[in-house]
Amino acid sequence: MGHVRIFQILHHLTRSSALHCTVTLRHSLRKPGESLHYSSFCTFSQRRTVSTETVMDHCISDLTDWEKRLLTKLYDGLIGGQRAALAESITLVESQHPRKKELSQVLLQRVLAFRQEQEKCNAGQPLAFRVGLSGPPGAGKSSFIEVVGKMLTGKGHKVSVLAVDPSSCSLLGDKTRMTELSRDMNAYIRPSPTSGTLGGVTRTTNEAIVLCEGAGYDIVLVETVGVGQSEFAVADMVDMFVLLIPPAGGDELQGIKRGIIEMADLVVVTKSDGELVVPARKIQAEYTSALKLLRKKSKLWNPKVMRISSQTGQGVSELWETMLQFRETVQTSGELCNRRQMQQKVWMWNLIQENTLRHFQQHPAVRAQLPLLERRVTSGEISPGLAADLLLKAFSDKQP
Predict the structure, then answer these.
(1) Strands 304-307 and 129-134
(2) Domain boundaries, the chain
(3) Class of the 129-340 domain?
(4) Fold of the CATH domain 14-121
(5) CA dist 152 → 25, 144, 221, 336, 392 (Å)
(6) Consecutive H or E run containing 55
(7) For the stretch 268-300, what's the b/e string if a residue is b when 16 or more beta carbons lie within 10 angstroms of its beta carbon?
């Protein structure tokens, strides 16, 4: 669906509905022993300008006593670094239940406010380092994460791993792949199955990152399966995107999309040990040459190609030093803050498009006409463009 049609739908939604909010949870930090404060009744139209106070106050329906206790328990446990509270909070934001979605947004706003206060004490710089990891099957992503994760926890870092797979509903697979790291009390591994929807990757993973950072994890690793479009979604939510490739022979450059290579801030050739050292060096040279011909993602950083061995540990320390060098470069220049601000905007528009499409598909007039119009399109009676215009007209003219 094109941007023009998206905006037509948005215009209809803003014209036909008003957001009525009752008791509002204020998202200021709660002092020890101080109860949560709720503002009085508020009502505003989506057509009006949203004030700063309205942005800070996330409006939802009246909270029950049980919901208040639940949110307080989750928030206190989360900022206290309790793994159980983090797991329960991520489960809440992953829920598709409308009421739980509202509760998750209240929790997220409080965590965001807490994180902003922490960043103010850090000269406005982010406290956590978000790293996206991608690569084709067999690239050794799990071994890489386990070796790097153990090294980082040994240095005093707290590491969270979010494994994103739009096609999977696995709940235990990621922990069985990273046995040592999963037993580390300074590491947290969470699979993020999204029931096959790319939009789910954006929403749930973004929110899980926020919760992990609120729980004190200063290194967040986001792993994708290395197929489909999930890499592009993940690249829009991390500070650094790392592409892992195996040292296999053949037309390796043809096997990975050019767009994914262009997104990479760092390319890592894995399994560079034993008989694979020579092929690994060859692949390193090929990618180094290829990166010189591609468009640079950053004005200040030239993507590098490195070799490591998860089995022997060779190159792992040097790899981390390079990643820290990247972070220092983009942080001191202000590029990191600009990148995160742009990612927040992308996140917002992704959610708008996802929710707008759902409203459109659930509209009674659209649902009534859709089967007939789909049959006429597939039979060639009318063009897809005309069918889309008819559905949009039905959506705009008839109120549900």
Answers:
(1) unpaired
(2) 14-121, 129-340, 363-397
(3) alpha beta
(4) 1.20.5
(5) 37, 12, 11, 21, 52
(6) helix 52-56
(7) bbbbbbeebeebbeebbeebeeebeeeeeeeee
- The residue whose two tokens read 């990618």 is 287
Given a contact cutoff of 8 angstroms between Cβ atoms, the answer to whether 247 and 270 are in contact is yes
Structure tokens at 272: 């560079």
- Please name the helix (run of DSSP H) or strand (run of DSSP E) that holds residue 387, with its range, or none: helix 384-397
Instruction: Record the pTM.
Output: 0.78
Q: Rounded distance, CA 201 to CA 86, Å?
A: 18
Q: How does strand 266-269 pair with strand 240-245?
A: parallel
Higher pLDDT, 294 or 319: 319
* Structure tokens given for 364: 């009674």
Residue 218 clears pLDDT 90, i.e. is over it: yes
Calpha distance 114→308 (Å, rounded): 37
Write the pLDDT tens digit of every residue in 83-114: 999 999 999 998 888 889 889 999 999 999 99
Residue 245 one-letter amino acid: I
| Bridge partners, 42 (sequence order) | 21
**Region 355-384: what's the mean pLDDT?**
92
Helix/strand/coil percentages in the chain, nearest 5: 55, 15, 30
> Which token pair is 182?
């999963």
Q: At what angle do helices 316-332 and 335-362 cross, to 10 degrees?
A: 90
Round to whole Å and give the CA distance between 398 and 95: 31
Cα–Cα distance between 273 and 280 in angstroms, integer?
A: 8
Beta-bridge partners for 160: 188, 220
List, for residues 124-133, the tens digit of each pLDDT value: 888 999 999 9
Lookup: tokens for 162: 């979010």
How many Cβ atoms sit within 10 Å of the Cβ of residue 98? 7
**Partner residues linked to 244 by β-bridges:** 268
Q: What are the two backbone dihedrals, phi and then psi, of residue 159, each rounded to the nearest 5 degrees? A: -115, 130
Class of residue 172 by CB neighbours under 10 A (exposed 0-12, middle 13-18, buried 19+):
exposed
